[in-house]
Write a structure and sequence with these properties.
Blueprint lengths: L12 E7 L3 H11 L7 E3 L5 H7 L2 E7 L11 H13 L5 E5 L4 H10 L3 E4 L5 H16 L18 H13 L6 E4 L6 H10 L8 E5 L5 H9 L16 H4 L4 E5 L6 H13 L1 E2 L8 E2 L3 E6 L3 H6 L5 H7 L2 E4 L10 H16 L5 E2 L1 H9 L5 H15 L4 E2 L13 H7 L8 H23 L4 H8 L3 H7 L1
Parallel strand pairs: 1-2, 1-3, 3-4, 4-5, 6-11, 6-12, 7-8, 8-11, 13-14
Antiparallel strand pairs: 9-10
């Protein structure tokens, strides 16, 4: 299929794009590769190649077929195309494929910036291209870690996520306690699983427990287990999550919701690696790594005696902060693409894609529920969409749950007004609030209020 430059960027991932002077050779190559490459193999004229690459969300690899009758080692237009593709995206694999290339042509191809040089009649050609495409797809999806057993698919290409990946790779091999911070829905358990998968404990179990989901009276039993006869109904001995995670990793999600009496027992577990079953008389040793997560400000909670300060410092040996999805909008297309690929597989569909207009809506939304909300939105859209393409009308976004920040500001200013007017109204609203707070703090003393605000009493009068 021939493609040409499109003014609107397609949300599609195109595994392979074939180009070059020889149409016959291109057609022959596409016919041979199409059944062996997972996805559509596209054809583009050389004059439109760079524009065609730019028109797609991601291209897995480009194969260029030189003119076999050319006298030069590498045709000028082909060489310029290789250089232009490298200038556009240095990570894009560009392969020169031809029959009977001379050593000068091979050298010229590599000098121009080609990733590899392959022979058209080589039986290994499809396998070599498939490997390049797979690596490119992983990079395009922003996959941050190597694909090793047990490794979750943590996605991101934003600078903050790259820094996060580096920190995780550095801390994972040790047994240091990690505190994962971030809003609900940012993927804290995924990061905990990545830490486990990259650690020396990866062959051991990964055991997770949500401290907020279990009643206070049952949480200790869930964590440490009980002995037979410890309480009414305890007809047999039961191990807890700590024992189940032996030689592995114990992930305590929503640790900020843990009741204070139980926090002292977690502190003992961290300090001495010991614990007691409920009703037990023999102290048990624990060989586990503790990773915790919270969406609360534990430092502030500790300052207000809502969380043990000594436990906070034991937990936060290595704090890892996950950015909110709205603060890494460039990752939204990558994450959305990965989600719809998984959904298509689960729903038994051959393909599922997001239109460019729908993608723009996804990128523009604030996502108060972060990646979890994005997953839920796309799953609902995938189930209800009438075609294999999710369009803007298939998305609900704000119609279900209004963004809390948007709601708060809408009570103060007109969010539908021109930007300059909205900014002016916001400034006035903040000014009124700040003055009211200063007057309240000063007990109505206008001179003291003006001084705390850094303005004169006359200016204060003028602002009221």
């Amino acid at each position: 299929m021939k493609v040409s430059a499109s003014p609107k960027k397609s949300a599609r991932f195109v595994p392979l794009l074939v180009s070059g002077p020889g149409e016959v050779a291109r057609a022959r190559l596409i016919a041979s590769l199409a059944p062996r490459i997972d996805g559509v193999v596209e054809d583009a004229p050389l004059s439109e190649l760079v524009a065609a690459v730019k028109s797609f969300f991601v291209v897995g690899a480009v194969v260029l077929i030189p003119d076999s009758s050319a006298d030069e080692p590498l045709d000028t237009s082909l060489r310029e195309s290789v250089q232009a593709l490298a200038a556009h995206d240095r990570a894009l694999p560009v392969v020169i494929a031809a029959d009977g290339l001379s050593s000068k042509q091979v050298a010229a191809a590599f000098r121009a910036g080609a990733t590899d040089v392959l022979f058209l009649d080589d039986a290994a050609l499809p396998h070599a291209l498939a490997a390049l495409i797979q690596r490119r797809a992983s990079r395009a999806a922003g996959q941050l870690f190597e694909d090793i057993p047990g490794m979750p698919r943590v996605i991101g290409s934003a600078h903050s996520m790259r820094e996060l990946a580096t920190l995780i790779e550095r801390v994972s091999p040790s047994d240091a306690t990690v505190l994962i911070l971030g809003e609900s829905g940012t993927g804290k358990e995924l990061v905990a699983r990545a830490i486990h998968a990259l650690s020396s404990r990866r062959r051991g179990p990964f055991v997770a427990i949500n401290c907020a989901a279990i009643p206070e009276t049952l949480l200790e039993n869930e964590l440490f287990g009980h002995e037979k006869g410890a309480y009414t109904g305890a007809s047999s001995t039961a191990i807890g999550k700590v024992e189940a995670a032996e030689k592995g990793t114990l992930f305590l999600d929503e640790i900020g919701e843990m009741p204070l009496p139980l926090q002292s027992k977690i502190l003992r577990l961290l300090q001495d690696h010991t614990y007691d079953r409920i009703g037990g008389t023999k102290t048990k040793k624990a060989d586990v790594r503790i990773v915790t997560a919270t969406n609360r400000d534990l430092k502030e909670d500790a300052a207000h005696k809502r969380f043990r300060e000594d436990l906070y410092y034991r937990l936060s040996v290595v704090p890892v902060t996950l950015p909110a999805l709205r603060n890494r909008r460039d990752d939204i297309p990558l994450i959305a693409q990965a989600i719809v690929e998984r959904l298509a597989k689960n729903l038994g569909r051959p393909a599922l894609r997001i239109s460019s207009d729908a993608m723009q809506r996804l990128v523009g939304y604030r996502w108060p529920g972060n990646v979890r909300e994005l997953e839920n939105e796309l799953e609902r859209a995938a189930v209800l969409a009438h075609t294999e393409e999710i369009g803007p009308n298939d998305l609900e976004l704000r119609s279900r749950v209004e963004d809390p920040e948007r709601q708060a500001w809408s009570r103060l200013v007109d969010l539908n007004a021109p930007l300059a007017e909205t900014v002016a109204m916001a400034g006035e609203a903040v000014s009124r609030l700040r003055i009211a707070m200063a007057l309240e703090d000063s007990g109505g003393d206008r001179a003291a209020a003006a001084e705390s605000l850094g303005i004169t009493p006359e200016q204060l009068e003028g602002r009221q």
